[in-house]
Amino acid sequence: MDLALAMVAEDHGQALALATARTMVMYVKRPGGQSQFSVPLSAPPPPDDRFGPLLRVIAEQPAADLSTEALAARAGLSVRHFSRLFARHTGRTPAAYVEGTRLERARRLLEESDRALADVARASGLGSVETLHRAFRRGLNTTPADYRRRFR
């Protein structure tokens, strides 16, 4: 796949290669040690249809209040029951899923824009540059600035 993407980049340009990689949920150039998956695509489709709209809200509105309490209320479940069902259906706790989704949004903003880190942190729902740095270290084992340099 890496060779195919390199050929697309050579023949049709880096922008098309990057778009193709995103469609395929791949990195154009994958550095060692980084996770290689998309948070929404990593979760199996939930059989309980109350989670489908909820997962879309998480993906589309990462800066919203996505606390476990708020998500449980939106699903009409107690926090404890919601947390158990959510983890069973997605394989992750609500907090881990939300952070992964926010990290993915931040990653895309860094790839596609020249926005300041503070703007990226706010738009992705991570809030502050410090939280953005912690999330990148924890999830991708790199810093936002290094990530931007590597993938822009």
From TrEMBL:
Residues 52-150 form the HTH araC/xylS-type domain. Keywords: DNA-binding, Transcription, Transcription regulation. It holds the Pfam family HTH_18. This is HTH araC/xylS-type domain-containing protein. It comes from Kitasatospora arboriphila.
